[in-house]
Amino acid sequence: MIQVLDKQFETFLPADKIQSEITLMAQKLNEEYAGKELIFIAILNGAFMFAADLFKQITLPCEISFVKVSSYQGTNTSGRVDEIIGLNTDISNKHVVILEDIVDTGITIDKIFTLLRAHQYASLKVATLLFKPNAYQGKNPPNYVGFSIPNAFVVGYGLDYNEKGRNLDSIYQLKAETK
Ligand code: 5GP
Question: Which of these, 41, 111, 38, 36, lies nearest to 69 by C-alpha position?
């Protein structure tokens, strides 16, 4: 059991289990993208650890770009405008794999698909370490999933609780509050 800020969390996915699953995912990607021009787009902040560990096990020639998805109030529109910050590389004709820490409702991934639509990529897929199928309501389900998990809040291995807990090498689940 660990404490992050005011909340208690219990071990959910130990570090060695995470690493073995990433090895399997990397093997799959190495097979499926052999001979293709491959670029990973890792979504900051949460995916940085997963992206680094996965990338080390990719044996194909490939690139990686780290981006942030931000949403701001546009000047002459009523809604918010989404943008991808940091994609300073040409993805046209490349096979793109988005790296996410967790796909929850799927809103973030759907935004990314919309934002990348104008780029002439060869293909676009999603690899996520964690997936919450019971929360998912999106249009672009992940193609590579490390672990499907229940709808509980998790921290560690890049994922935060109010910016804390990202440094933990295992993943922890919020402990049910005791009354
Ligand atoms: P979505 O757009 O799929 O609903 O959510 C994706 C983002 O929500 C993730 O990148 C992550 O930042 C955040 N998120 C969703 N579930 C969790 C969770 O259990 N723990 C943490 N730390 N972040 C989460």
Answer: 111
In the chain, % helix, strand, coil (3-state, to 5) comes to 20, 35, 40
Domains with residue ranges and CATH for the chain: 18-174 (3.40.50.2020)
pLDDT-above-70 percentage for the chain? 96
CA–centroid distance, 103 to ligand 1, in Å, is 6
Q: What is the residue whose two structure tokens read 């998912």?
A: 136
Cα 61 to averaged position of ligand 1 atoms, centre (Å):
30
Confidence category of residue 178, pLDDT binned at 50, 70, 90: low
**Cis-peptide into 45, omega within 30 deg:** yes
With vertex at residue 74, the alpha carbon angle to CA 73 and CA 75, rounded to the nearest 5 degrees, is 120
> What would the mean pLDDT of 76-82 be, rounded to a whole number?
72
Max Cα–Cα distance, the chain, nearest Å: 57
Q: Determine the average pLDDT of the residues in 90-94.
A: 97
Compute the average pLDDT of residues 16-25.
Answer: 98
104 is catalytic: yes
Which of 90, 104, 110, 169 is an active site residue?
A: 104
